[in-house]
């Protein structure tokens, strides 16, 4: 049975004064989006009026879907006459009245295919960009890729009407640079206050398979004053392959090397939560040489948003 993912976004049109450049600075955001047409898949930062669109897609294990939209500073012959700084906020959460499809990995890429950010399960992150003043209009392509790894829990675990995931994109624009900031509805520890230590042993060759293996250990430290309850962690490890874990649950592993680990659910506060000033560690066996570093790390919990600005140290 395929599950439905709901995507909500909008064509955000700023007040007409942005084209004339009469305002020194301003900020406009539109939240709580509704359904509408599936035709206008653009954020346009000029002109008057607003529009929205809604799109429902179905997905099953081992499938990957893509969804694309544009960000523009022009509409037909009207081009913004000021520098435009924009922020796109991606919120991946359970649909109203449902539980999230936990194995889903949402990857956001630019028009060249470069990964800008990733979330497995639920989380929130910002993408910042700008259109500097120019005589011609400018636009950028944003590609949203949704994958359900084949190695995750079976579809039966998410059957029925109790499960659904929504991806909401909010847009904000200004004539002055914008900062990436957490969603006020999902408080999180200060950015940069979580650190990750990735330790790998020297590799050895398996005598039967000839495959190189090593042992890994990941330590997450909470340096903030806010506890991270029921912690989870996502990251990208492209070349090596983590095969199992102790003191944590390996929830999903995609063919592209995107991992999601969760707390072991031992009903032990010191293991399931990361208290202020404390650390948790987990590890296991891996295949490869152990030379790659974890990338695109995200750490979060049931009481926090996704923390994507994480300090990482790799000690081979």
Automatic annotation (TrEMBL):
InterPro entries per UniProt: CBD2, CBM2/CBM3_carb-bd_dom_sf, CBM2_carb-bd_dom_sf
Question: What UniProt keywords are attached to this protein's entry?
Answer: Signal
Biological process according to GO? carbohydrate metabolic process
The entry lists its GO molecular-function terms as: hydrolase activity, hydrolyzing O-glycosyl compounds; polysaccharide binding
Q: State a single Pfam family of this protein.
A: CBM_2
Q: Identify the PROSITE patterns for this entry.
A: CBM2
Domain (CBM2) spans 187-307
Q: Which residues form the signal peptide?
A: 1-19
Protein's name in the database: Putative cellulose binding protein
Q: Which organism is it from?
A: Desulfitobacterium dehalogenans (strain ATCC 51507 / DSM 9161 / JW/IU-DC1)
């Amino acid at each position: 049975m395929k599950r439905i993912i709901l995507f909500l976004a909008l064509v955000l049109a700023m007040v007409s004064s942005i084209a004339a450049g009469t305002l020194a600075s301003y900020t406009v955001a539109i939240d709580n989006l509704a359904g509408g047409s599936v035709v206008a898949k653009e954020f346009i930062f000029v002109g008057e009026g607003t529009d929205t669109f809604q799109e429902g897609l179905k997905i099953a294990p081992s499938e990957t879907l893509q969804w694309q939209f544009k960000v523009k500073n022009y509409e037909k012959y009207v081009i913004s006459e000021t520098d435009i700084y924009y922020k796109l906020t991606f919120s991946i959460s359970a649909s109203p009245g449902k539980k999230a499809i936990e194995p889903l990995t949402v990857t956001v890429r630019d028009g060249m295919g470069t990964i800008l950010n990733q979330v497995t399960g639920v989380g929130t992150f910002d993408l910042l960009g700008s259109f500097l003043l120019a005589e011609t209009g400018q636009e950028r392509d944003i590609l949203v890729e949704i994958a359900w790894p084949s190695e995750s829990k079976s579809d039966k675990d998410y059957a029925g009407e109790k499960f659904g995931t929504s991806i909401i994109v909010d847009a904000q624009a200004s004539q002055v640079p914008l900062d990436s900031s957490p969603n006020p509805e999902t408080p999180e520890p200060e950015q940069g206050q979580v650190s990750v230590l990735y330790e790998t042993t020297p590799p050895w060759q398996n005598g039967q398979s000839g495959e190189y293996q090593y042992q890994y250990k990941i330590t997450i430290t909470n340096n903030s004053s806010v506890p991270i309850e029921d912690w989870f962690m996502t990251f990208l490890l492209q070349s090596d392959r983590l095969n199992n874990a102790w003191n944590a649950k390996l929830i999903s592993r995609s063919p592209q090397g995107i991992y999601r680990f969760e707390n072991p659910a031992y009903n032990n506060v010191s293991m399931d939560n990361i208290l202020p000033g404390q650390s948790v560690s987990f590890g296991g066996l891996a295949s490869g040489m152990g030379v790659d570093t974890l990338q695109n790390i995200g750490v979060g919990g049931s009481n926090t948003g996704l923390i994507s600005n994480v300090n990482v140290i790799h000690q081979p």
